[in-house]
Amino acid sequence: MTAMIEPGKIAPGQTDPAAIVAEAESAMARIAAAKGEIGRIIFGQEAVVEQTLVTLIAGGHGLLVGVPGLAKTKLVATLGTVLGLDARRIQFTPDLMPSDILGAEVLEQAPDGSRSFRFIRGPIFAQLLMADEINRASPRTQSALLQAMQEHHVTVAGARHDLPAPFHVLATQNPLEQEGTYPLPEAQLDRFLLQIDVYYPDRDAERRILLETTGIDDAEARPVLAPGEIAAFQRLVRSLPVGESVVEAILDLVRSARPGEGRAAEAIAWGPGPRASQALMLAVRARALIDGRLAPSVDDVVALAEPVLKHRMALTFSARAEGATLRGVIDRLVAPLR
């Protein structure tokens, strides 16, 4: 494959276009192989797989929202195996304490009678962490996890402990059962790069699920990427060029999603801040790389508008009373870009 980086495009970091092209072509082949292996295990959720890969390759965290039984847990386990990441899972419950996920210091006594504290790491010390039903944990436990997501380290008894690199959290929420849950505050939702909505598979995909997962042998994922490759892809994403038209599309879209600024301003109670623009800038580059392209297009902005914006904005009471939805409002905002 031959490709050229167009003059006048924004390419921060890397200055040698030939080096970017060579590294990107190699990465595209590796990512395609990984995506194919994931698709061999996870059926009927192509958009979810793509958005999850976008999240990881862009270096962020994802919030998976869907009813039980849609293979969210299996997806995270498959990603860990295929991408060469150390993956762990925490089932969040109301009685879960911060120390249950971060770890704690224990007092040990040596044979000579001396005593000292030793830090025992919690399950958060993983490269890929599944926070299952994160909204069932108390705000104190949620904030401990979300602080670690932002800072990439934990502090216990005044001592700092760095998390593995890369470090990603894929949290899940059930949109139906809200009794006894603690909804994430807006400031904490903003720390997720994408909100990935998981829908029911279509009939053909569900038929394949029936035939291929209820036999004697169940397909198991195989490792495709070596440890460290994801980190290299994340550095590459930040070097990919971005056309001025894409930059302007991102700015137009995010700014129009704020109260008083866009074509749906009357329906918006509060909207996304600059972090949404940053998330969209990284996500469109990652999507282009996954799709085998060297630079993103406005189509990538359109495709990722909803998962980037949906959890970063809210509708007014009057708009909700009139039957407006976030999806519908975002569609209105995206319409000029199509």
TrEMBL record:
GO molecular function: ATP binding; ATP hydrolysis activity
Domain ATPase AAA-3 residue range list: 61-194
Record's protein name: MoxR family ATPase
Domain ChlI/MoxR AAA lid per the UniProt entry, residue ranges: 262-325
Gene3D superfamilies: Magnesium chelatase subunit I, C-Terminal domain, P-loop containing nucleotide triphosphate hydrolases
Pfam families per UniProt: AAA_3, AAA_lid_2
Organism field: Segnochrobactrum spirostomi
